[in-house]
Amino acid sequence: MANLTIVGVDDEYPALELIRHYCDQIENVDLLEVFQNPEEALQYLQKNRVDLVILDINMPYISGIDLLLKLPYKPLCIFLTLETQYAVKAFELDVVHYLVKPVDFETFKRAVYKAKDFLQFKKSAEDKKHEDFIMFKSNYIMNKVLLKDIKWIQGFGEYIILITHLKKYMILERMSNFEENFQNLGFIRIHKSYIVLFSHISSYDANTIYLKGGEQLPLGRTYKKQLKEYFG
Predict the structure, then answer these.
(1) How many domains does one find in the chain?
(2) Who has the most CB within 10 Å: 12, 14, 162, 164?
(3) Among 56-65, 96-105, 177-186, which is the least confidently predicted range?
(4) 4-aspartylphosphate modification sites (predicted)?
């Protein structure tokens, strides 16, 4: 497995030096950059995908939480902060760990290893060629859902709702990220707010997708061309 790529962001220089020092002692990690200015970090992260960001929360110009929400993708995150009152919000964002300063090396290392283990698990699941299920985190629990049971995925801002025959799952994930992660399994975007499995589509007309289960979903104008290509 490739090294875990990391970016550190903290407006206090000593904290960044500590991140450097700790990362230098952990095998198979690459600390690519550190930033005292969170706006500069945001610009970098918008252009460069990394596996893990280690973030302070209370920073000038933009908080660590807001920085994370502004990213076009969802890296793993460890909050490293003096603040304790944001722990609930952090876990709503599915962060890997919430570390309160000062942090000793062993605690820091365990948090990084936790990120490495999660990334390895995620990549191994995505790399399987003939997968008939997906795995995702919802309400702090890893869930396994068979593709045949998925009806559709609906977007709501920073969240998506995965709707199955049995229940609904709320997932902290952007539609674009879900589409990118699972497009090799036959998911297709039909609307800015809807993704379905192509194999579940029965037919379509100018404005509507008809699923084999009888459900009807809107068809966005900009997605018609792609749908026509799928149908050949």
Answers:
(1) 2
(2) 162
(3) 177-186
(4) 56
* pLDDT (0 to 100) of residue 1: 57
Residues near 41 by beta carbon (within 8 Å), at least 6 away in sequence: 7, 9, 33, 35, 67
What end-to-end distance do the CA atoms of the chain give, in Å? 38
CATH number of residue 189's parent domain: 2.40.50.1020
Residue 78 pLDDT > 90: yes
**Contact indicator for 204, 210 with CB cutoff of 8 Å:** yes
Task: Indicate whether 178 and 227 sit together in one domain.
Answer: yes
Q: How far apart are the C-alpha atoms of 210 and 218, rounded to whole Å?
A: 9
Helices and strands per DSSP (H, E), number in the chain = 7, 15
Is 34 or 121 the better-scoring residue by pLDDT?
A: 34
CB 195 within 8 A of CB 156: no
Lowest mean pLDDT among 54-58, 61-65, 185-189: 185-189
CA dihedral over 12, 16, 21, 22, signed as positive or negative: positive
DSSP 183: G
The full DSSP string for 79-131 is: EEES--TTHHHHHHTT-SEEEESS--HHHHHHHHHHHHHHHHHHHHHHH-TT-
pTM: 0.58
What phi and psi, each to the nearest 5 degrees, are found at residue 20?
-60, -50
Look at residue 131 in the predicted model and tell me its pLDDT: 58
Judge if 189 and 214 occupy the same domain: yes
* Segments forming the whole domain that contains residue 154: 133-231
